Amino acid sequence: QVQFVESGGGLVQPGGSLRLSCAASGIMFRIYVMGWYRQAPGKQRELVAHITSGGNTNYADSVKGRFTISRDNAKTTVYLQMNSLKPEDTAVYYCNMYGSERGWGQGTQVTVSS
Predict the structure, then answer these.
(1) pLDDT tens per residue across span 5-26
(2) Cα separation of 78 and 69, whole Å?
(3) Helix/strand/coil (H, E, C) string of 7-40?
(4) Is-contact 87 13, C-beta < 8 A?
(5) Is 91 exposed, middle or buried (0-12, 13-18, 19+ CB in 10 A)?
(6) What contacts 22, CB < 8 A, 6 or more positions away?
(7) In angstroms, rounded to a whole number, what is the distance separating the alpha carbons of residues 74 and 29?
(8) Which of 47, 76, 85, 86 shows the greatest Cβ crowding within 10 Å of its Cβ?
(9) Residue 98 confidence (pLDDT)
(10) pLDDT at residue 18, rounded to an integer
(11) Where does the pLDDT of residue 48 fall: very low under 50, low under 70, confident under 90, or very high at 90 and above?
């Protein structure tokens, strides 16, 4: 069955950086557009970025220029490099198949605070 395991979150000061990883299994990873999503307390889950199998990327305006999504099809893993973090980036971060979302993982908590 489909499974996503997110990791790499933590507590970081404003302006800091984190690199998230998401290992996927149970899917033909290389054919899917993969996305990173986040959900802040009291808010709906939102799309942060997505990446095609060929490496084309798209970002939410709120993270453009600060976050970079990448993928390794051989390792069935998608990454999110987050720089210049802000308190409003605090959320639980998830990955999934963009447009075919199912089988959500537990996510990884990112907290940006001084």
Answers:
(1) 999 999 999 999 999 999 999 9
(2) 7
(3) ECCEEECCCCCEEEEEEEECCCHHHCCEEEEEEC
(4) no
(5) buried
(6) 4, 5, 6, 7, 34, 36, 77, 78, 79, 80, 94, 95, 105
(7) 9
(8) 85
(9) 95
(10) 98
(11) very high
